[in-house]
Amino acid sequence: MEHQCRYGEPMTVSEYLRTPETTRRIELINGMVREPAAPARRHQDIAVAIWRHLHNHVRRHALGYVGMSPIDVILDRHAAVVVQPDVLFVAAERAPHIVRRRVWGAPDLAVEVTSQGTGRFDRRDKRTLYREHGVAEYWLADPCLGEVTVEHFATQQVRCFEPGSVVRSLVLPRLRLPVARIFDAGPFY
Hints:
This protein has 189 residues and is of the alpha+beta class. It has one domain (39-183): tt1808, chain A. Helices cover 25% and strands 26% of the residues. It has helices at 13-17, 41-60, 95-98, 119-132, 179-183, and strands spanning 27-29, 32-34, 64-68, 73-76, 81-83, 87-91, 109-113, 137-142, 147-152, 157-161, 166-167, 177-178. The chain has a 6-stranded mixed sheet with strand order 3-6-7-8-9-10, with helices on both faces. The protein has a two-stranded antiparallel sheet with strand order 1-2. The radius of gyration is 16 Å and the shape is globular. 34% of the residues are buried.
């Protein structure tokens, strides 16, 4: 039986997963449906640039799985937490156990591209959810500032990569991603 998302009413993960498949970004935060507006084109260009670079690096070195929103990531079935990071990475040794039709557990790396409508939520609430549910590293790409903040939760290391610098990751230590490749990517058409 197909269910509809019930805005303003609590929902379980099982109910959420029975809703019709969609390309819209819908998340379940502590049992409540959250559906932000569709990302602007610039947001998508930045997310695609990050995905493309991570995907090429991960594939070249057989490091695991790189996904892009919309894909459900079930962080906590009991607390009803389902998110859709803009980009995510799951290491090869974990991927067979948690990456199926959806991702059933914390990715090793989650990336969010901020926007005027989601920036505060991404900086505060999503960061907390990712930290509390076992994501190892969180990237926050800010198009307004042209910078990427990388936070590695276990070491509590926070680094800000500004224009002209190269993004480095503890989760993907061989990765070198020039900030210019993220924000100067332009449209992909």
